[in-house]
């Protein structure tokens, strides 16, 4: 089965402004994305069902974004053997530290690959790197992206050198 699809699950529509950066980055790699709002607390049964069926539904990776007591990524990871990438969202008075700890501090046996607070773009790149293991097309796009990133830093360095002369 083709497993190049990525599920992007967010705990609330209020997470969308951050999560959109992951969706846009995945689309830039031509990776099919399916986005949903599901909550570990407000829609626990839907979240569990989604995770249980995700592999059979052709997903290769799940990205889960949530804030506050952010249990979404953990609940999804508990119900699938697909890799789950967690994005802790900065959505509370605790500046996202609550979300970070709730997402990253998983017990042994149920890993969640957690990116930085609001680190949506890295979540997408990590998902692409996982899929690239079985997709030469995605691998090529990642290599191109990294080269462009390198070129852009070198260009900035060149400009800085000129300015400082
Ligand atoms: C979490 O609570 C969501 O992921 C969101 O980051 C936060 C606040 O949700 P809303 O009250 O804005 O819907 O479950």
Task: Describe the model.
The protein has a single domain (5-136), classed as Rossmann fold, CATH 3.40.50.1970. It has six helices and five strands. The protein is globular, with a radius of gyration of 17 Å. It is α/β, with parallel strands linked by helices. The relative contact order is 0.17. Helices cover 48% and strands 17% of the residues. It has helices spanning 16-28, 44-54, 72-77, 97-104, 120-132, 136-164; strands at 5-10, 33-37, 59-67, 84-89, 113-114. The model has no long low-confidence stretch (mean pLDDT 96). The termini are far apart. The longest helix is centred in the C-terminal third of the chain and has 29 residues, at 136-164. The chain has a five-stranded parallel β-sheet. Helix 3 links the parallel strand 3 (59-67) and strand 4.
Rg is 17 Å
What is the total tally of β strands? 5
CATH topology: Rossmann fold
Shape type: globular
Helix content: 40-55%
What topology does this entry show?
Elements: E1 5-10, H1 16-28, E2 33-37, H2 44-54, E3 59-67, H3 72-77, E4 84-89, H4 97-104, E5 113-114, H5 120-132, H6 136-164
Helix pairs in contact: 1-5, 5-6
The structure holds 5-O-phosphono-beta-D-ribofuranose.
In short:
The chain has 6 helices and 5 strands, in the order E-H-E-H-E-H-E-H-E-H-H. It is of the alpha/beta class and 165 residues long.
What features would you highlight for this structure?
165 residues; alpha/beta; five-stranded parallel β-sheet; 6 helices; 5 strands; globular
């Amino acid at each position: 089965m083709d497993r190049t699809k990525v599920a992007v699950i967010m705990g609330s529509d209020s997470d969308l402004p951050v999560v959109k950066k992951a969706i846009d980055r995945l689309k830039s790699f031509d990776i099919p994305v399916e986005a949903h709002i599901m909550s570990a607390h407000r829609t626990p049964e839907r979240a569990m069902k989604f995770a249980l069926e995700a592999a059979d539904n052709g997903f290769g990776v799940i990205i889960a974004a949530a804030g506050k007591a952010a249990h979404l990524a953990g609940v999804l990871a508990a119900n699938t053997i697909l890799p789950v990438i967690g994005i802790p969202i900065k959505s509370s008075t605790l500046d996202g530290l609550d979300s970070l700890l709730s997402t990253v501090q998983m017990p042994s046996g149920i890993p969640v690959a957690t990116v930085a607070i609001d680190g949506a773009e890295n979540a997408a790149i990590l998902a692409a790197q996982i899929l690239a293991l079985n997709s030469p097309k995605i691998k090529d796009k990642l290599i191109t992206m990294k080269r462009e990133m390198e070129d852009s830093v070198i260009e900035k360095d060149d400009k800085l050198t000129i300015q400082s002369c």
